[in-house]
Amino acid sequence: MIWSEVINQSRAKEVLNRGISQDRVAHAYLFYGPDGVGKRAVALAFAQSLQCLNEETRPCNECNACRKVSRMLHPDVHLLFPYPNDADPADIGMRIKRLGENPYVPVDYVRRPSLTDSTKVSNKQAIYTVARINEDLRRAMSFKPVEGRYKITILTDVEAMRQEAANAFLKLLEEPGPATLFVLITSRPDKVLPTITSRCQQLRFDPLSNQDIEEALVQRMGLEANKASTLSRMANGSYTRALDLADNEELLESRQLILEYLRFSYTQNTDKLSDVIEQLNALGRERLKGVLLLMISWIRDLMLFRTVGDDTLMINLDQKESIERFCNNVPDANIEAMVHMVEESIELVGRNVQVYLVLVTLANKLYFAMKGYPEDRLYIPLHEVTVPV
Ligand SMILES: [Zn+2]
Q1: Which of 162, 94, 96, 154 has the alpha carbon at shortest distance from 126?
Q2: Centre of ligand 1 from the C-alpha of residue 65, in Å
């Protein structure tokens, strides 16, 4: 992983490189910002620069240290991520190897419970246990570097540290060993103990532009330009999400399910709607959230098409026809209200509310919104719910 392989994030690169050249490297960093924008990639490029043996051009990508870091085999560079209690060590090793090959690929246990089956869903929790912090991490960090200049640990998804583990980690941060360096990575800095974040130099990461993502998909993954354009618009600034979508035809196909969900909600075809809800329900919470995000992008396209009148800004370019048809058939739809409703449903799904109930309620609310009811009149008394709960 060299700096040129990091997509954009020029500000973070600049800050870190300045630190290296002025020999002012902090002992702990917090990289925060949305998922999939390159925090891991920057952390690995930074680690490689710090360990590189070639003082002239760090990282040279050729010396022994550089090669070891890029293959995730350097004894003084560790990458940790939360995993479920019963995770298989071989599987964990595979994930780390994959990250070495491409730090943008989705390998976390929440999004990808199975590396081999991208459609697999799991509700298992992936966390950092206090034992792991105290035994593995403390021991690893208490020794001097084996062969590198620093002892570096990169911890991704640090918000997955519960109180006890976070307190144990805080002790490590408070009394850093010589030449130790932590890089903490999170998309939820609000969920990390302030006593931890305040001890880190903080670096914010912004979403990538559609153009950045599109170029990377074409140049690195060899995707065809049209598909890259569609995926980049659907990815919300996250290259990892774009890769996930590219890898997962099923998720793209679920847009068909979205269309049917909207159509049967509108026509109040309760039998068919129940079928669709069953299928959505079977996706599991994480995947369903992804599908609901796609629903929002789809509804936004309706709005764009209606206001702009063409497809210039459309995300789901390949679904242009059905969007056009929908606009013509449902001219009064309160699209803004529809977006709010789906957003609210995503939050409910994330909060462990029963998924089936969320989908039934959403279908009913969408019906009224599509009929053009103003948002403040969209409270629906339960006795008016038309789908059997
Ligand atoms: Zn090197």
Answers
A1: 162
A2: 6
For ligand 1, the distance from its centroid to the CA atom of residue 27, given in whole angstroms, is: 21
Query: Is 61 within 8 Å of 2 (Cβ atoms)?
Result: yes
Cα-to-centroid distance, 52 and ligand 1 (Å): 4
**What is the C-alpha end-to-end distance of the chain, expressed in Å?**
52
Ligand 1 mean position, distance from CA 51 (Å): 7
Confidence (pTM): 0.74
- CA of 197 from ligand 1 middle (Å) equals 30
Ligand 1 center to 54 CA (angstroms) = 5
- Residue 261's alpha-carbon distances to 233, 268, 306, in angstroms, are 22, 10, 21
> pLDDT by residue (tens digit) across 5-55?
899 999 999 999 999 989 899 999 999 999 899 999 999 999 999 999 988
Asked whether 191 and 38 are in contact (CB, 8 A), the reply is no
Ligand 1 centre distance from Cα of residue 61 (Å): 5
Q: Rounded to the nearest whole angstrom, what is the distance from the C-alpha of residue 60 to the centroid of ligand 1?
A: 4
Q: What confidence tens digit (pLDDT) does each residue in 126-154 have?
A: 889 998 898 878 877 878 888 989 999 99
Integer CA distances (angstroms), 36 to 41, 148, 271, in order: 10, 28, 39
Is the Cα dihedral 215, 221, 226, 230 positive or negative?
A: negative
